[in-house]
Design a protein that fits this description.
The protein is of the alpha/beta class. The protein contains 16 helices and 21 strands. The chain is globular.
Length: 494
């Protein structure tokens, strides 16, 4: 880990340099309970707030975040080992979504009229109401984007928030909380608890948290889902991915190769939607491999800002990646970029693995590092067989082809939460598109109206338009009801 825990103190260091950054105290379990109780009390009044008041809070928060942009980029890069432009992208993506969400919330969550069918004397509507307290557990790989998004959605939907950040990136969230307090007269709407798994478990299992949103590994997500299921508590899970990139023979090969390298190596491959598997039509395989190798040769890995690929943030993740690569070297061609052995940080060079066995670790497990596998396929049947074989992840996929209809047809046959055509990763930057996966990649959605509704209870309301004295189907009109209904069925439905 890029954090050492001793005597309930989190000592955080830079994974790119090994240098200590700062420390932060874990929140005691007694204090966790008090914070959650406080959030629950606050929710009783805040859930009556107007959309105007909610949007004002988030807009002020966004402006304060922009004002502190440089400080955020600095701490993000130190905690994660990211490059400056990657930290900047976190800022851009976060504030863009915040601005978008405030614009659509009143429309997304206002009562909706529904048709009543044959019950012509009724009026029906659907209402979206806050749950109460939203418990959010955010990850280390995108400590700002994947924290700000659910916070904004939960608060705009009328909930209060208790957030537990990843131990690795607690300092980014500490700054976020400070900026929040500066931007609002409602500091208790958003509260933070720090610590390891026991703190997260207290948040999930509390009877005062009403909905849980977790972003992280599939393994931990499954445990959280089990806890929430036992409590009949709704849960939003954004989990791992093993995303394929498909290259058809008619594709723009240079664009596809550029996309594959950026999609697989940016943020050192530590993105749930990273390109991890490439499938290229057989006739173009050799050429495409050559294009990838040439691009890998141009990449620099290291702690300097002019390097392309930064550090692996978590030591356990680094060890897992190395294990996958070492296993692959026994059976497959492995092509690695250069890496200065004198670097003290946790670095892995960009790596291409050609034709690994289908049952190897690198094919079955999420890698979460700058590693891409490549295989060929003969036809679409062969393609779909290879994509689905031993792969229960379904977060996103990419297809490169000049035939748009072909791309749409392939997209229909891939079990995944999103598909990019002639592009990679970019779908997350489109705020109006819901984001989430299927299978081992998660449950529920964030982003867009679907994200706002994920933090809302749905209530149906049925009202009489006018009084008939009594309804036809009530007990004392049984005979008349049977007679009229039989005639209506024969007339209307036959």
């Amino acid at each position: 880990m890029s954090v050492r825990i001793k005597n309930d103190i989190l000592y955080i260091f830079n994974p790119a340099t090994g240098e200590d950054i700062d420390s932060i105290e874990s929140t005691s379990l007694d204090k966790v309970d008090k914070i959650i109780n406080s959030a629950s009390e606050k929710a009783r009044t805040y859930n009556q707030s107007s959309f105007y008041d909610r949007t004002k809070i988030i807009n002020n928060f966004r402006k304060a975040l922009v004002s502190n942009m440089d400080d955020f980029i600095d701490i993000i890069c130190k905690e994660t080992g990211k490059k400056y432009e990657e930290g900047l992208t976190e800022i851009l993506t976060s504030v863009d979504y915040m601005k978008y969400a405030t614009k659509i919330v009143s429309k997304a969550l206002r009562p909706e009229k529904r048709k009543t069918g044959i019950l012509f004397n009724k009026k029906a509507s659907v209402h979206y109401e806050p749950y109460g307290v939203a418990g959010i557990i955010s990850p280390w790989n995108y400590p700002l984007i994947l924290t700000v998004t659910p916070i904004s959605e939960a608060i705009l939907a009328g909930n209060t928030v208790v957030l537990k950040p990843s131990e690795q990136t607690s300092l980014t969230v500490k700054l976020l909380k400070e900026v929040w307090n500066q931007s609002t007269k409602e500091p208790d709407l958003f509260q933070v608890i720090y610590g390891a798994g026991d703190v997260g478990n207290a948040l999930v299992s509390s009877d005062k948290t009403d909905v849980i949103c977790f972003t992280g590994s599939t393994q931990i997500g499954q445990k959280i889902a089990e806890t929430c299921a036992s409590l009949l508590k709704p849960v939003i899970l954004e989990l791992g991915g093993k995303d394929p990139l498909i290259v058809m023979k008619d594709a723009n090969m240079n664009r596809a190769a550029d996309a594959a390298i950026w999609g697989g190596m940016s943020n050192a491959g530590q993105t749930c939607t990273s390109v991890e598997k490439i499938y290229v039509e057989e006739s173009k395989k050799a050429n495409f491999i050559d294009l990838l190798k040439k691009r890998i040769d141009k990449l620099k890995t290291g702690p300097n800002q002019d390097d392309h690929i930064g550090a692996i943030t978590v030591e356990n993740s680094k060890n897992k990646i190395i294990s996958q690569i070492e296993e692959a070297k026994k059976t497959s061609e492995v092509y690695e970029g250069s890496l200065d052995s004198n670097y003290k940080g946790w670095f892995i060079p960009p790596t291409l693995i050609i034709d690994p066995p289908k049952d190897s670790k690198v094919m079955l497990e999420e890698t979460f590092g700058p590693v891409i596998t490549i295989q060929s396929f003969e036809n679409e049947s062969d393609l779909f067989n290879k994509i689905t074989q031993f792969n229960s992840y379904g977060l996103s996929a990419s297809i490169f082809t000049k035939e748009k209809n072909k791309a749409r047809e392939i997209a229909k046959n891939i079990s995944t939460g999103a598909v990019n055509v002639n592009d990679v990763l970019t779908h997350y930057g489109v705020s109006d598109l819901p984001f989430g996966g299927v299978g081992k990649s998660g449950i529920g959605r964030v982003h867009g109206k679907e994200g706002l509704r994920s933090f809302s209870k749905i209530k149906s309301l049925l009202e009489n338009r006018f009084s008939l004295g009594s309804e036809l189907w009530w007990y004392h009109k049984k005979d008349l009801y049977i007679k009229l209904v039989k005639k209506f069925i024969k007339f209307y439905y036959k």
